[in-house]
Write a structure and sequence with these properties.
The complex is a heterodimer of chains A (617) and B (246).
Chain A (H helix, E strand, L loop, with lengths): L1 H23 L3 E6 L5 E7 L3 E2 L5 E9 L13 E3 L7 E2 L3 E15 L2 E14 L3 E5 L3 E4 L2 E4 L3 E5 L27 E7 L3 E3 L4 E9 L2 E9 L6 E5 L4 E7 L2 E14 L3 E5 L3 E10 L12 E10 L3 E6 L14 E9 L3 E3 L3 E12 L11 E2 L3 E12 L6 E11 L4 E5 L3 E6 L4 E6 L3 E6 L27 E2 L7 H28 L2 H25 L3 H20 L8 H10 L4 H16 L5 H27 L1
Helix pairs in contact in A: 3-4, 3-7, 4-6, 4-7, 5-6
Chain B lengths: L3 H26 L12 E2 H13 L3 H14 L4 H17 L18 H24 L4 H30 L2 E4 L3 E4 L11 E4 L3 E8 L2 E6 L2 E7 L3 E3 L14
Antiparallel strand pairs in B: 2-5, 2-8, 3-4, 5-6, 6-7
Classes of the chains: A alpha+beta (617), B alpha+beta (246).
Keywords (chain B): Membrane, Signal, Transmembrane, Transmembrane helix
Protein name (chain B): Tetratricopeptide repeat protein
């Protein structure tokens, strides 16, 4: 009796569950029952229309009145593409089997088994996906579903996350309740030039994010961009769903006017996708966690930038925002020669890095220097803030009063839509005499007497370092002379490389140097030395004439060499005779030596001159 | 012939360089054509007297300008070097960078531009003469080398002088005469804190834009300043008492 009640209760629960499932899911479904009524199959799609990249879920439920439960095999899908081609593909989508659960019931001794199999269908493009009838067979019982169709269209609303649904793909538009999407938004779409705009790039997620998020910032051409610190995290409610939000804020300052576009931000993220068991009542089914990489993009944002209104006050240098000027003087009394440091600080909200330093001037100032300037930017808040400090040192060398003139700063207030001017008061600084010294004591160079003025004029000259005409002429002349010297020297050296000319030059040297010296010695009654020089000149000259080396050769050998080189016999005999007479001069009587030497040297000269004539022909 | 061609090229290049240098100088001199003293016959004594007078009354900018101009004409004059050294020392002290010690007087062995040019020409001429002597002797290679070295020294020296003349033509020397001269970026340039120059600071000038002139220090441009606060050294004679141009 108790078992019967339990079986009845189980049947009731199963019936209610089936009813609930039928009410919840069947947006598109097809069921079939075998003729015997023992076997039935039911296939349902969670959506009729799906966007490309989104996932549709196909649930196939099989009931069998018996112990055998058939396997479910999904037949190949086909798609009919949209557009002019209207082609048909047989691999239109990625189909994954998400899981299968089974249940068992016994009512009035009748056993019924059922299984539920879930498929995820990820379409690859637009079109209509046809799911053919799914057929099962147990024994003689056969059941099949009706065909199903799934429309894939970009106009489809992104599916909301239902129970057991998988993580969806890229989600630009947060229509419905997507699990992950990225959004770029600005705090205002209509601004003035250089007015601060806050860009919020937010990543919304209802699933766990694995690892780091890869952000690619949007293109911000026409904007000066400043980051506002590290990513910020939080939790928000969007259409009743709780999202973890990661935000990267930035401050943008338009540098152009007109319609400017902030490009799409790209985010790559890995999420932990939880696949719920198909049958929530199954005790054995455990949730499956699958990592999935997603590439998300935000929508571009257009901002209209107006130019600043005309009529800017004098001194306006482009500062836009909300600023305040403070001026501080480090001392109201100084000694002559000591500096007074004036610090001007501009602080506020806006692009502080581009704010120009205010002009600080003084009256009674001998000289002034820029001590330094610094810029501090505060990125921790919701807006870019900061301050800029400028330190100027003013020095007065004479005692008296140093007046720091009013310091002014002009900026444009975009909230009020008008220019603002802030001006400090003038500050009077008392300058005391320098400590312990009269004014002239420390005057540089005072220990050295200045030279007195001149009484006479001159010298005269030119102040320009350009070349005077005489120097130009001299340089030009030098260049020409040097070039011609090189040319002449080169030609001369080239000429000397000719052997005939070289022999003539050598003969000329013998005539000019050696014979002249011999004649000179003969005139000084040194006939022996003169004859020796003349004999050597004759030997060398003969060798040059016949192009043969005669030095050191014996008499007979010399005659043979000359004959071989073309000398005639008479010429050879004359030469030998002349050699003999020159050699005999040393043994001649003293009274005849000089005359003999002169005679012999003359004969040598005549012979060498004849050789020169013969060579020059 | 192969040796003659490089020599001709050298001579032509030198003549062209000298002609262009004189041309650039002439274009600069056109602005002062009305003042004959700004040409070739500038009295160093008049400039020196004007500088000494300005130095005595503490007017450092004109003092440095006049004394620099006088120093260019008569660089070995002891009085000019002394007073220029004192003026420069006072400028440094006024800017807080001097040591109040011995004024840095210019060296006594300097040459004026004209003397430098003539020295360079004399060197080149001596080189040419020695080269001719070498050409007359067949095997006087050492003599030829000595002449070539002399000629090259003269040419290098004249090249350096040419560069100096061109630099002066493009970026003339000037002296700050205003008590404080603010040198900042041009109106269309990125805003930067200005440099402040004091009277007597020696700078070089670049191109002009309206009443602004580019200021260079040490070969680098530091910004733009009003031209009224600067005197070019070559214009110094215009500001002497006798010129009436001041």
């Amino acid at each position: 009796m108790t078992g019967r009640r339990i079986a009845s209760a189980t049947f009731l629960v199963s019936a209610l569950l089936a009813l609930a499932t039928l009410l919840a899911l069947p947006r598109a479904g097809a069921c079939g029952t075998s003729p015997g009524g023992k076997l039935s199959i039911d296939a349902t799609l969670d959506v009729n229309t799906v966007a490309p990249g989104a996932t549709a879920t196909l649930t196939v439920q099989v009931r069998s009145a018996g112990l055998n439960l058939p396997d479910v095999t999904l037949p190949p899908l086909t798609v009919e593409r949209v557009g002019p081609s209207k082609s048909v593909e047989h691999t239109p989508a990625l189909v994954e089997r998400a899981g299968t659960s089974q249940s068992f019931s016994m009512v009035n001794n009748a056993v019924e088994r059922s299984s539920t199999t879930v498929y995820r269908i990820l379409p690859r493009g637009e079109g209509t996906i046809h799911i053919p009838p799914i057929r099962i067979t147990v024994g003689r019982e056969t059941a099949q579903t009706s065909p199903l169709t799934l429309t894939v269209s970009r106009t489809a609303v992104f599916p909301g996350p239902g129970p057991g649904s998988a993580v969806t793909g890229p989600a630009k538009t947060p229509t419905g309740r997507p699990e992950v999407f990225v959004q770029g938004a600005v705090d205002r779409a209509h601004v003035f030039w250089n007015q601060q705009i806050l860009l919020h790039l937010k990543l919304y997620s209802r699933v766990d994010i694995l690892g780091d998020v890869d952000w690619k910032p949007p293109a911000t051409a026409g904007f000066w961009t400043e980051g506002l610190g590290p990513p910020r995290r939080g939790r928000v409610q969007v259409r009743g769903a709780t999202y973890e939000v990661m935000e990267i804020p930035s401050a943008l300052f338009p540098t152009k006017t007109g319609k400017l576009t902030i490009g799409a931000a790209q985010v790559r993220v890995r999420v932990a996708r939880v696949v719920e068991p198909p049958d929530p009542w199954s005790m054995l089914a455990m949730p499956e966690i699958v990592p999935q990489d997603l590439a998300l993009t935000s929508d571009p944002v257009t901002v209209t930038v107006d130019p600043l209104p005309p009529g800017a006050p004098r001194g306006f240098q482009g500062a836009v925002g909300d600023f305040r000027l403070t001026v501080h003087v480090d001392s109201l009394t100084v000694r002559a020669g000591d500096p007074v440091t004036v610090r001007a600080t501009i602080q506020g909200t806006g692009n502080i890095a581009t704010v120009r330093d205010p002009e600080i001037r003084g009256r009674g100032v001998t000289r002034q220097y820029v001590v330094g300037s610094s810029t501090k930017v505060d990125r921790s808040g919701d807006q870019l803030k900061g301050e800029r400090e400028t330190d100027i040192a003013l020095i007065a060398d004479q005692p008296g009063t140093l007046t720091i003139l009013p310091v002014s700063f002009v900026w444009f207030d975009p909230e009020a839509g008008r220019y603002r001017l802030q001006r400090s008061d003038s500050v009077r600084v008392t300058v005391l005499p320098a400590a312990g010294a009269p004014a002239q004591a420390g005057r540089p160079g005072s220990g050295y007497a200045e030279a007195a003025p001149r009484a006479k004029p001159g010298p005269f000259g030119t102040l320009r370092p350009d070349p005077p005409p005489s120097a130009v002429a001299l340089l030009g002349l030098s260049a020409i002379a040097y070039a011609s010297a090189l040319a002449v020297g080169g030609a001369r050296r080239k000429k000397l490389r000719d052997p005939r000319v070289a022999r003539l030059e050598a003969l000329e040297g013998l005539l000019v140097r050696d014979l002249s010296r011999a004649e000179s010695l003969a005139m000084r009654n040194e006939a022996g030395r003169a004859a020796a020089i003349a004999e050597r000149a004759l030997l060398l000259g003969t060798g040059i004439r016949y192009d043969v080396e005669l030095s050191g050769a014996a008499k007979s050998e010399r005659a043979e060499l000359l004959r071989v080189r073309g000398a005639e016999g008479a010429e050879v005999s004359a030469l030998e005779s002349l050699h003999d007479s020159l050699g005999a001069i040393a043994y001649a009587p003293p009274e005849t030596r000089v005359s003999d030497a002169r005679h012999a040297i003359r004969a040598v000269r005549e012979r060498l001159e004849r050789y020169r004539r013969e060579l020059s022909l | 012939m192969s040796r003659v061609r490089p020599c001709l090229r050298l001579a032509l290049a030198l003549a062209f360089a000298l002609a262009s240098a004189r041309g650039s100088m002439a274009s600069l001199a056109e602005t002062d054509a009305s003042d004959p003293r700004a040409q070739d016959h500038v009295d160093a004594a008049a400039l020196y007297d004007a500088g000494t007078e300005a130095l005595a009354r503490g007017d450092l900018g004109p003092a440095v300008t006049f004394l620099l101009a006088a120093y260019r004409i008569d660089p070995r004059a002891r009085d000019i070097r002394t007073n220029l050294g004192i003026a420069r020392a006072r400028v440094e002290a006024a800017e807080g960078s001097g040591d109040h010690g011995m004024p840095p007087a210019p060296p006594p062995f300097a040459l004026s531009p004209a003397e430098s040019w003539h020295l360079a020409a004399a060197l080149a001429l001596a080189g040419a003469l020695v080269a001719w002597m070498a050409a007359a002797r067949p095997r006087a290679r050492r003599l030829l080398l000595a002449g070539s070295a002399l000629f090259a020294a003269g040419m290098v020296f004249s090249g350096a002088l040419l560069l100096r003349a061109r630099e002066e033509a493009v970026h003339p020397s000037a002296v700050v005469v205003a008590p404080v001269l603010e040198v900042g970026p041009a109106p269309d340039e990125r805003p930067l804190p200005p440099y402040l120059l004091g009277a007597g600071d020696e700078v070089r000038l670049g191109p002009s834009r309206g009443d602004l002139v580019q200021v260079r220090v040490g070969g680098n441009t530091i910004g733009w300043a009003k031209g009224s606060g600067l005197w070019r050294v070559v214009d110094a004679p215009r500001y002497t008492r006798n010129s009436g141009a001041r």
